[in-house]
C-alpha cells in the first residue's frame, strides 16, 4: 500500500493524455485556445505505459484517462487496449466531453471500461454553445445514450457558474428521475487558462445543495463511497443520484487518494500544485524503473497537506493541461 507523508492512501492516478481539445469551455480555456505544447514534449504512449506499469506495481489500482479531450489524440483506443493489459490494474475510467465518443462505446465496453464521466454543464443547446463555444450538444447526448445502452455507468459532470448555467441545476437533477446517471455539480475552480483570479465563489457546494433542496425538499444524503470527492444524495423515486463536488472549497483533502500526471509528464501530488516532479525528464535521461519509482515515492512523501498549501506560489494554468 502506498501512503503519503500524512498517512493518506494513494491508489488512484489521473493521467492527462493530451492538452488538445475540440471544445473551448470558457472555464477551462480562452476562446482562442491555449498555447499548445509541442508534440515532442508530450509523453508518448510508450512512456505513459511505462509510468503506469511502475505505478501499478507501487500501489495504484485505478487510472482515469483525461485531458484535454482524450479522444482527439490519435490511436487512443490502441493505447487503452495496452493499458488494460497491465497486470494488477483494477480499473480504468475515462473523463470525456463526449463529442467523439459515441461510436467508440462498444469498444470501450469490450475493453472492460465500467464507468465514464461525461461533461455536461447544460441540456440547453444555446447555453451549451455559449459555454463550450461549439454547437455539439446533440453528439454529447448521443454519447450518454450509447453509454447507458451498453451498461456503462455514467457520471455527468456539470461545473456550476454564476450567470451561465445555474438555471440548469434543476433540469440536470431531473435527468436522474428516469435515467440511472449520477449528476455531479462541481464548484468552479480558477483554471480557465487566462490567469484571472476569482474574488469569491458564489456557487459553492452549500448554495448548490440549497438550490436543489428548495425544489426537492425530500432529497436524502447517501453514504459516500471511500475516497469520494463528492457529497452524494438521492431523491426518493429517482433512478439516478446527485453529487456535489466542493472542488474549490477543498473539503476533501483529508482523504485525497489521487495523483496526477500532465501531458508534459509532470507529476502533481495535488490538483492545485504547479507540478512537483518532471517524470518525462527522468525517463528521457535514461534512468531505470527503480530510480523512477523511488523519485515518485519521494515526491509522495513530501505531499502538501491540502490544496491551500499546495497552491502557494503555483500558477493557475488551463484545466486542459491538468485533467480536472
Ligand atoms: N475534455 C474532457 C472533459 O471535458 O470531460 C476531460 C478533461 S476536463 C479538463 C476534466 C473535467 O474538468 C471536466 O469535467 C471539466 O468540466 C472539469 N473542469 C475544467 N475546468 C474546470 C474549472 N475551471 N473548474 C471546475 N471544473 C473544471
Ligand atoms: Fe475541453 Fe474538457 Fe476543457 Fe472543455 S473542459 S475545453 S471539453 S478539456
CATH homologous superfamily caption: Aldolase class I
Named once each, the bound ligands are: S-adenosylmethionine, iron/sulfur cluster
Strand content: 15-25%
Low-confidence spans: none
What is the string of SSEs from the N terminus onward? EHEHEHEHHEHEHEEEEEEHHH
Distance between the termini: 25 Å
CATH architecture: Alpha-Beta Barrel
Mean pLDDT: 94
| CATH class identity | Alpha Beta
- The radius of gyration computed from the alpha-carbon positions, rounded to a whole number of angstroms, is 19 Å
> How many individual helices?
10
- Which fold does the CATH topology refer to? TIM Barrel
Number of strands: 12
Helix content: 25-40%
What is the count of distinct domains?
A: 1
Give, in spatial order, the strands making up the sheet with the most strands: 7-8-9-6-5-4-3-2-1-10-11-12
Q: Biggest β-sheet: count, sense, barrel?
A: 12 strands, mixed
- Given helix and strand content, the structural type is alpha/beta
Shape: globular
Report on this structure.
- This protein is α/β, with parallel strands linked by helices and 324 residues long.
- It has one domain: Aldolase class I (TIM Barrel), CATH 3.20.20.
- Helix content is 29%, strand content 17%.
- The protein has ten helices and twelve strands.
- It has helices spanning 45-58, 76-84, 105-110, 125-132, 137-149, 169-178, 205-215, 279-284, 289-300, 307-311, and strands spanning 12-16, 62-66, 91-96, 115-119, 153-160, 182-187, 220-221, 230-234, 241-245, 258-261, 266-268, 277-278.
- A twelve-stranded mixed β-sheet has the order 7-8-9-6-5-4-3-2-1-10-11-12.
- Helix 1 (45-58) links the parallel strand 1 (12-16) and strand 2.
- Helix 1 (45-58) crosses helix 9 (289-300).
- It starts with 11 loop residues before the first strand and ends in a 13-residue tail after the last helix.
- It binds S-adenosylmethionine (SAM) and iron/sulfur cluster.
